[in-house]
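Sample intake sheet
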Amino acid sequence: MPWAPFDKKFDTTISIPPGDTLLLISAGESPSSAGEKRLLVAVRASIVDSRSARLENLERIIMPKVEFRDTPLGDAITFLRVESVQLDPDQKGINVILQSGSDAAELPRVTLLLKEIPVKDALRRVADLAGFKIRCRSCAVVIFRE
C-alpha cells in the first residue's frame, strides 16, 4: 500500500499582531527503504495582519447618519463602536479605546451631523471636535489627548 505523507489536511486562519512570530509544524512518519522511520515536517503559514483587516473596516463601514447634540465624548465613541458592529457584514466592527485621563463628567461634549461617512472619518471628526487625536494600534483604534 503506497504511503500518503499527509492524509489529513488542516486549514486554519490565525490573526496575530504585527511583529509577533507564528510557527506552525505538522509532522508525520514515513517508512524508508531500510525499514527505519523518518520524521517528515512541513511548515506552511499564512499570517493575517489583523491591523490591515481593521484598517479595511475603517474605510469599508459607512455610517448612514451620525448625529450628536451636546453628546458627551464617551457616549459618542460608544455609539460609533456599537454602530460599526451592526453595520459590519462580519459583525466585528471597530474596537475603539478612549484614553482620556479624566472623569467622564469632565469630558468634552460634541455636536455634529454627518451623512454617508466612513467610520474612520466619523471617529476623526468626533475626536477633532473634542480636541483629541486618533491612532490605529494593533488591537484597537485609540482616541487620546495630546
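Comment: Confidence is low (pLDDT under 50) at residues 6-12, 21-30, 38-48. Residues 14-49 form one domain.
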